[in-house]
Amino acid sequence: MFGSSGSVIWGTLPQGSISRDTQLLPRFGDMTKTVIFGAGGNVGRLVVREALRRGHEVTAAVRNPARHPGLRTDGARVEAGDIMEAEQVLALVEGHDNIISTATQYNPGTDSDAFYTASTRALLAAARTSSTRRLVIVGTMAILRDAAGVLLADAPFFPDETRPFIRSHALGLEILRTEGADVDWLYLSPSGNFTGGGRSGHYRVAEHGSWSDGITHSNLAVAVVDEIDRPAHHRMHLAVAN
């Protein structure tokens, strides 16, 4: 199980239970310029706040800024952009040190395969051709594997109607793995019960996930920004849990 027999990791891959508490980490966010795609979502909004809290200069990229007036109130610069359009992504990324994406698409009648393949390739292309140092993407826990190597989405209770959406996430991750060797990317997924609870600043990262774990939206945001301020993992997919 994750947190017991699974490998919990920080930087290298030691065995045992190692956690990260953001209160103990040095803050390197001052003057850092970070663009965040999907900034208007439940997780994206919290990532924006966390980055601003650390002293980042934040550009919040959303499709329709008029729908997210609170982002400006929080202190972010808000820009319109379609993450599926490579030229728009490049224009938004230019001049930033880091890219974060919490963007998702799960609506009836939409082509989620096209969304995740196009957006992942657009992010990689922008990271290659700009001054960007780091790309962190947040994706569904369903494409994590447990300690036995079983995909979490293969659990018998998992709803069949969500499987096309899960496959789309997996396509995006595979593009990172096969086409992103020249980009410093990281893919993070919440493990287990994903809730809107508060921010403790404490979390764990691991190679495997488990339905029995959990993480709050706020603590996932902490983990995301920690990997910008102090990158510890590179070109891999990790679970994040409380």
Automatic annotation (TrEMBL):
Domain NAD(P)-binding: residue ranges: 38-231
InterPro entries: NAD(P)-bd_dom, NAD(P)-bd_dom_sf, Polyketide_Oxido-like
GO molecular function: isomerase activity; oxidoreductase activity, acting on the CH-NH group of donors, NAD or NADP as acceptor
Keywords on record: Isomerase
Gene3D superfamilies the record matches: NAD(P)-binding Rossmann-like Domain
Name of the protein in its database record: 3-beta hydroxysteroid dehydrogenase/isomerase family protein
Upper classification of the organism: Bacteria, Bacillati, Actinomycetota, Actinomycetes, Kitasatosporales
